[in-house]
C-alpha cells in the first residue's frame, strides 16, 4: 500500500501542470503554451535581427534560409504540442458532455417543480421527466462509447476536426423530436382511459406535426448534402480544407479561419428560435407532436436554402495572376536569372485556418521540375512571407534557362494554375 501511494505521488509530481509530455493529459496544455511562447520569442528575435550566427549573417539569402528552417522546426514542435493538447481535450470532453446532459435533466426537474406549484403534478410532467432521463441515459452511453472522440459531440464533429453546423442543427432537431415522441409514449403507457389513448395516438398523426416533420427532414437532408458537397469540392480542388487541432463552439458560427459567416449564423439563430417555439408548444400541448406553424417552418426552410447556397459559394481554387522579379532598393532592372528572387502574385495561397507557421512552411513553389520551399520571413507579430496574395521565393540554380512554368502548392495540397516565365542565363 505504501509503495503504491509513493508511486502515485511520483506520477502526480512528474505530470503536474508544468509537464510537457505530448501524451500527458495533465501537462499537454502547459506544454503547448510553453512551446508557443518559445516560438513567439524566437520569431520576434529573428524579426529584430537578433540570434543570427556569424556564419550566415553576412549573406541575406543564407540568413533568410537559416531563419526559415529554424522557425519551421520550432513551429513543428508547436504543432505537435497542439495536437497532443487537442487529443487530451477530446478525451476529457466526454465527461463534460455527460455533466451537461444531466444538468439539463436536473434543470427540467426544477422547472417542472416550480410550474407545478398551484397547478399540481400531472402525468405529463412525469412523462416529460422520464423521457429526459431516458434521453440522458442514451446520451451518456453514447458519450462512453465515443469518449476518445468527444463523447456525445462525436457525431457532430466533421472530418476536419471542427464542429459541423449542419450536423449540430440536425442533431438538435432529432433529439427534440425523439424527446417529444418519448413524452407521448410515456403518457400513452400511463393512460387508462381509452378515449385518452386514442387522443394520444391521434397526436402522432402527420396532420398534427407536419411542420416539425418537414423541418426535420430538411435539416437532416441538408446535413447529408453539405457533407457530400464539401467532399466533392475538396476532391475537385475547388475548396481548401486543413484540419483543426480540436473542435470549438465557435465553429458553429465561423468559417475555418475563425471569421463569422452570415450563412452559418442565420442558420443557427433561426433554427434555435424555431426549437424554442416548438419546445414551448410541446410544454403547452404534451398530447401531440408540436404543431410548428407553416409560416415558421417556411422561414426555417429559407434559412436552410441560404445555408446550402453559402456552402456552394464557399472557397475557390488558388490562382497565380503574375510572376515578377523581386527588386530591392538600389537594384537595377533586369530579367529573371537563377539566384534571383521572384514574387508570385495571386489569390488564395493561404487556406482558411492555415495561418500557423507549421502550415505556412508546407507551401511549395514548383519552378519547372524543381520544388522550392517557401521561406518564412518573420516580422513583429507575424510573417511578411508567405501571404495570401504574394509569395517570394528564390530561383534555384537547378532551374534550366528558358521558358519554365511556375506553380504554387498550398498547405492544403491544392495546386494553382501554371504560369510561364522566362529565365535567362
UniProtKB/TrEMBL annotation:
Q: The organism sits in which domain of life?
A: Bacteria
Q: Which InterPro entries match?
A: Ig-like_fold
- Membrane-crossing residue ranges in chain numbering: 99-121, 127-147, 168-190, 210-230, 262-280, 292-310
Signal peptide, first to last residue:
none
Record flagged with keyword Transmembrane? yes
- The keyword Nucleus appears for this protein: no
Keyword terms of this UniProt record? Membrane, Transmembrane, Transmembrane helix
What is the protein named? Membrane protein
